[in-house]
């Protein structure tokens, strides 16, 4: 079977060379949950997140939601890939943390200069390749003391610097040029050395230029001394695996770095680089392992978005905080004395975990934080409600900390979080009709795509739990997200619902094809042969053999189910043991489902089709799923391993039994892992099968080919 795996990339765009390692986003998670689900009632870490403040979310998601509520971040609805229903693997909710951060931008622009915000560059020294060139070209072009020929030469030289990896020779400064042109050429040499990571030589040039009278060069060189020292400091502080080793930090160089920032602010308190220079403070505090100073600087930035020193970038801030604060090896929660950081910490430590090294925050520890939240009492009451519900398992008590009245609108992510948690609690205790009305109300008052998508998820879960399949059907269904529709069809829909989708005039071809594939797959695997035969003869496309999913020659079929797996013309095991084509085989099984030859042949079909269906239905589905969906198809799941056992136990010596013995042994070849389904056979049983075929059927090619049992 063909699968499509979505590569998960947690990109930490933090301004210095990329180092990927587990962060405290995973605190409380014994292991990352790799099977994403539509689930609101969960506090175990999930790779797919919800637009609410929740323990199950990645830290970065919770941070972005709080940053939005603080008026700092604007979170747009990211564009969901438009795919066929068969290919659909993700929607707006739930989402990957990186999808949310990449869809976020500053609500209040920062004042940083010399920064290519749209470039995915992981090395600090390289982030100004474009913006630095633009400013340089502008300065040279407008300079009145530099001749046109000198300008052309300088601009040509700067345009040759395109990346940090290229080998660029230093410029030979022409002594016949004007003094200004020579100074700009020297500056370019400093830039070349900087990008080549020759920091000591670059420092000498920038130091010299910082003493000249050319205003732009003088200030820019002073600023570049900060960057050069920072990069030299960081490069010398890396451990064996490329991560920061605080034991290797050169304290003298660290002091020089901070002094250079101080010098710049003294010389240029309103300089063009003040925001960027102050941003380097955070990196210095991180390298210096000064968590308290780092957190305080971040808080100052969040509290002063109108300042000329404001330098936060919302698309990267969450990853920076997660790595450089919560991801610190010696992270100390006692340094947190701000609602933003404490809320993230509290949610992180209200996760479910099997790890012996993890302990959730206690009720008394949480309540001790109340004074810190005096300006944000609703946020604190929500955190208390989360603790009561998830940690203390007291849902009714948790309700006392949530708003009593049903709102007419949702103004922020905290309100959405309160509403959602209350709904989750009500689902456990209230009348089912009231619960549906509650989620319907959220859908009705939804003011943005995230609220609407979350309401759909909540309703879909409710419909699943109450087995209201009709609510998913038809164009009037409230469930519009493709991932939810797909999950319903592949995991919840029963025979009646699937047939309804296939025959409905308002069903799209995508829906019909997915429903048909699911119906064929599940009915065959659960041995509902009458259902399978009806679907096969009535709805299977005449050119089913052309439907090969991504391998289809017809472009339109590449994004549709691979119906060709149901096109099987039979198989000749021996001249006297032959299997008919699939439609003939299942017609025979409908009349005589216990026929061992037919059953063995169905096993041959499963084996010959490359295990397309053999690994049990549902394997073709990728994307978030409903947690613990009830199997809507009755019947025992077919397993060729069990068929072989039935034939072996028949005690009727025959070619059929010889082949069954051979296949039963081969089920465990060569890894001793059962690939045929059914109950695991002990090694002693496999040994008996091996001995039996050697004893009873010594002259068969099957017995002769077996050298081992596994």
Automatic annotation (TrEMBL):
Keywords: Signal. Residues 1-29 form the signal peptide. This is Uncharacterized protein. It comes from Acinetobacter guillouiae.
């Amino acid at each position: 079977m063909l699968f499509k795996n979505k590569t998960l990339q947690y990109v930490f765009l933090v301004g210095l060379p990329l180092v990927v390692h587990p962060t405290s986003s995973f605190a409380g998670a014994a292991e990352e949950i790799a099977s994403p689900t539509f689930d609101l009632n969960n506090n175990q870490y999930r790779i797919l997140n919800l637009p609410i403040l929740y323990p199950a979310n990645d830290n970065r998601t919770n941070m972005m939601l709080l940053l939005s509520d603080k008026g700092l971040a604007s979170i747009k609805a990211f564009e969901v890939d438009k795919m066929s229903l068969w290919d659909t693997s993700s929607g707006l909710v739930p989402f990957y943390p990186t999808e949310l951060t990449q869809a976020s931008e500053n609500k209040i622009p920062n004042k940083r200069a010399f920064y290519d915000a749209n470039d995915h560059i992981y090395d600090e020294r390289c982030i100004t390749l474009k913006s630095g060139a633009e400013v340089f070209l502008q300065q040279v072009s407008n300079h009145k003391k530099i001749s046109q020929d000198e300008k052309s030469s300088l601009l040509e030289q700067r345009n040759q610097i395109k990346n940090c990896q290229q080998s660029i020779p230093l410029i030979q400064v022409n002594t016949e040029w004007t003094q200004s042109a020579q100074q700009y050429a020297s500056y370019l040499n400093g830039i070349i050395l900087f990008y080549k990571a020759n920091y000591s030589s670059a420092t000498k040039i920038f130091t010299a230029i910082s003493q000249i009278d050319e205003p732009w060069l003088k200030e820019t060189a002073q600023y570049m001394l900060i960057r050069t020292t920072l990069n030299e400091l960081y490069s010398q502080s890396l451990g064996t695996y490329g991560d920061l080793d605080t034991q290797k930090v050169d304290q003298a160089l660290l002091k020089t770095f901070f002094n250079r920032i101080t010098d710049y602010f003294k010389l240029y308190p309103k300089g063009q680089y003040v925001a960027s220079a102050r941003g380097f403070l955070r990196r210095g505090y991180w390298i210096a392992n000064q968590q308290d100073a780092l957190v305080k600087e971040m808080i100052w930035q969040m509290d002063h978005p109108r300042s000329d020193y404001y330098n936060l970038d919302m698309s990267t801030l969450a990853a920076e905080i997660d790595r450089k604060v919560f991801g610190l090896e010696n992270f100390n929660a006692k340094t947190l004395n701000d609602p933003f950081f404490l809320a993230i910490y509290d949610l992180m430590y209200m996760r479910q975990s099997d790890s012996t090294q993890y302990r959730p925050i206690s009720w008394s520890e949480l309540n001790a934080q109340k004074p810190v939240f005096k300006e944000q009492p609703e946020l604190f009451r929500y955190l208390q409600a989360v603790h009561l519900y998830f940690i203390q398992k007291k849902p009714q008590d948790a309700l006392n900390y949530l708003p009593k009245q049903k709102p007419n609108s949702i103004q922020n992510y905290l309100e959405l979080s309160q509403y959602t948690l209350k709904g989750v609690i009500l689902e456990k205790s209230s009348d089912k009709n009231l619960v549906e009305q509650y989620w319907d109300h959220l859908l009705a008052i939804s003011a943005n795509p995230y609220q609407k998508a979350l309401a759909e998820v909540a309703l879909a879960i409710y419909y699943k739990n109450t087995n209201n399949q009709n609510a998913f059907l038809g164009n009037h269904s409230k469930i519009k997200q493709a991932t939810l529709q797909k999950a319903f069809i592949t995991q919840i829909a029963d025979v009646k619902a699937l047939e309804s989708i296939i025959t409905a005039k308002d069903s799209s071809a995508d829906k019909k094809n997915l429903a048909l594939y699911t119906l064929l797959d599940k009915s065959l695997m659960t041995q509902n042969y009458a259902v399978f035969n009806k679907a096969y003869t009535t709805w299977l496309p005449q050119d089913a053999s052309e439907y090969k999913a991504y391998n289809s020659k017809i472009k339109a079929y590449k994004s549709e189910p691979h119906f060709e797996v149901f096109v099987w013309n039979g198989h000749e095991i021996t001249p006297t043991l032959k299997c008919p084509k699939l439609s003939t085989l299942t017609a025979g099984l409908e009349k005589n489902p216990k026929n061992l030859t037919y059953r063995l042949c169905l096993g041959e079909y499963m084996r010959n089709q490359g295990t397309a269906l053999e690994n049990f239905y549902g394997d073709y589905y990728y994307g978030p799923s409903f947690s613990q969906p009830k199997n809507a198809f009755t019947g025992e799941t077919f397993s060729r391993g069990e068929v072989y056992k039935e034939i072996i136990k028949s005690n009727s010596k025959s070619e059929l039994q010889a082949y069954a013995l051979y296949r039963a042994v081969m089920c465990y070849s060569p890894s001793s892992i059962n690939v045929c389904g059914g109950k695991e056979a002990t090694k002693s049983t496999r040994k008996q099968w091996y001995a039996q075929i050697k004893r009873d059927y010594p002259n068969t090619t099957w017995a002769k080919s077996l050298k081992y049992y596994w």
